[in-house]
Specification:
about 25% strand; 8 helices; 2 domains; Nucleotidyltransferase, domain 5; alpha/beta; five-stranded mixed β-sheet; six-stranded mixed β-sheet
Length: about 250
């Protein structure tokens, strides 16, 4: 059986690679194409079809991350950073038809959380684990004993009258030219709220900025164990491929 393929659909780029699920690693070089300016479902599906031509195995099941809420059955329910025409689209059906193979979609932060639970720092950990991705916004994935509870939107918690991600996302750090120390104070406020509401056993910090985790994670003053993710920018593709393999009919 050929390896499943993960596709990470973001606001600026669409990336794809086959994944060896025995290791949680790409089994061929990752490919990337810019996201179309008009990121409608049909336009994005065309780009994904082009990406798949780069890989062998025309019958590979495909998993796709979506930067929005994904309801049961693959229906997209929100579209903050992509074309609004995605809302209400049955993405599983649309992409399966266009790509001529079995496709399953998953929220992008949920994919990252699933990857960390299967292959990263959360592997083998029991209890309640919250994975957060710090980037343009704050994505979240909630896992209990390794089982994903999908579509949490913990970046949109209201804290001190603000949408949390507008104050604590990595984009806020960059836009306000914050030092690691000042940003860590913002993150402390955010993660203390997470603690109060969920009492997690472990918090994992993901997103590209996690490669600088030593600079700010030790400065976050909370009681819960908090550690840096290990898969970082590969997590979306790996998690999407894992989900697709799980759901393969």
């Amino acid at each position: 059986m050929t390896d499943p393929i993960g596709i990470d659909f973001g606001g600026s780029g669409i990336k794809a690679a086959p994944v060896d699920l025995s290791r949680g690693e790409f089994s061929a070089q990752r490919r990337r194409i810019d996201t179309p300016a008009q990121s409608t479902p049909k336009a994005v599906a065309v780009v994904m079809a082009e990406l798949l031509k780069e890989f062998e195995g025309g019958d590979s099941v495909v998993g796709v991350t979506i930067p929005g809420v994904v309801r049961k059955g693959g229906v997209v329910a929100s579209a903050a950073n992509i074309d609004k025409s995605w809302i209400g689209t049955d993405a599983d059906d649309l992409l399966s038809d266009t790509l001529d193979r079995e496709v399953h979609v998953i929220n992008d932060a949920d994919a990252a959380g699933l990857a960390e639970a299967r292959f990263g720092v959360a592997r083998g950990r029991q209890g309640l684990i919250i994975v957060t991705t710090l980037g343009t916004g704050i994505g979240s994935a909630l896992l209990y004993d390794g089982v994903l509870v999908p579509n949490t939107e913990l970046g949109h918690l209201e804290i001190d009258g603000f949408d949390a991600e507008t104050r604590a996302a990595n984009s806020a750090r960059k836009n306000e030219d914050m030092s690691w120390e000042k940003w860590a104070k913002r993150l402390t406020t955010y993660y203390k709220t997470i603690e109060k509401l969920f009492s997690p056993d472990l918090i994992v910090v993901g997103g590209g900025v996690s490669k600088h985790g030593r600079e700010f994670i030790p400065l976050i003053e909370i009681d819960t164990e908090i550690i840096s993710a290990t898969l970082r920018n590969t997590a979306g593709i790996v998690g999407a491929a894992a989900l697709a393999s799980d759901k393969q009919g």
